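Two proteins, back to back. First:
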Amino acid sequence: MTMRLRMWVLALGGLGAAVLYVLACLGLPSFGGDRHPSGDRAVRAALARHTANTVSSVNFDQRALDTLGEESILFGSVLGAVVLLRQTRDEDRQQPEPARVAPSVRRYALFALPVTLLIGLYIVAHGQLSPGGGFQGGVVVATSLHLLYIAVDYRALERIRPLGLYEVADAAGEAAYVLVGAAALLAGWAFLGNFLPYGTFNTLSSGGTVPLLNAAIGVEVAAGVVVLLARFLDQAVEIASTDEEAEDRA
């Protein structure tokens, strides 16, 4: 196939996609109207499965397979950062020198750390009941741990951040999501189908598989963000060249 023919194929494909996009937009309900077919269906499905938070019902039930893809993007990003930013044999990693922290900053950060951690865990645990969920709560949990870096120093953060455990937790969160989907297959449902009892509406045990998938996302996001930030923070390194490499450059 010549370059000119390829350009024609690309142009025709782009034109076809544009036409379909315009036709889809013309079929949308008018802005500000009282007709919301997609939203009405999502709310009905959420209430039928005893999930108070419709957004969580959409994310972890009605389109749980799409959420698996989103989670896998973060997991792949963390894995790529770990591989690309790993320490090589030519790098001599130096411990950063502690910097003076203003007393007011120290007090505020140490006070905010447990509060932020508790809020993050609350957001994850109540993901099927109130706004938020595993994605948002996981980021808040990871952020709370790094307040120790602001309040004290990097060494204090390292003491509560064993990277090996967080890397295992990152993989475990990803695997747990897939295993819940596989359990649905064993129960005779579709992959990631909501096969568990729906429980009592507006309680922590409601929503069937929604709280399980939400918790798996929370673990994966929290651990993944911690590992990702650790790899970037650890880039305060000094590359020590060997005598042979120095001679070669000379």
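And the second protein:
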Amino acid sequence: MTTTTAPDVLGQALLDYHHGKSGATVTVHCSAADDEPLPAAYFFRTVLQMPELERLALDESRGRVLDLGAGAGCHSLELQNRGFQHVKAVDVSAGAVQVMNERGVLTVARHDLFAPLPPTELPYDTILLLMNGLGLTGTLDGLDKFLAHARTLLAPDGQILATSSDVRYLYEDEDGALLINLNGPYYGEVEYTLSYDGRTGEPFPWLFVDAALLNDAAETAGYTAEFLSEDENDQYLVRLMPQGVKG
């Protein structure tokens, strides 16, 4: 019996762009919205090209930094440029990891965000989850699981800096009324599939969590949530710290 490995669609697009294919573009299929193109170039943006929320998150970073879902490493590289001595970039994509290594990210690992802290590794002062990074938790249950797990990755006074969005606008009619099945799953739990260059990856869950629900989940998990900023697209940046610790 032979097994096939799901194609690393995003990783291949990042590699192609990094190796000179400037037009490399992934198609994003979402269960809650129309298909959208995602240029690989977006993952290679400079700090001047980053949205304000991401620049603020980098400004608020301190100490040892763990960059989860790092993609092509643009945030880790910027922190290295600022003189940060300990930045670890993590992505589940083999192609993304290869790109980050080739671009000069000093410490790179391939695994998901639930991997345990290696016994020889010190905990982190800052965990970054940018580009709607809380979506990596997949579901509300996954969010609860990650918040518990993150305590094992963080220093006692560490912080999580993460972005997410409230996507209720996707379910509003012309009059602004919400068309949501209250007996169904949470409206921010969606499914994505990526395709590129004739190949399609496996579907994966993604979470967009509204601020009120995140605040409740954080409090239940023993964190204090500080909402640092919000943009015109209902995306926000939040700082999560263990309760009793001040930022």
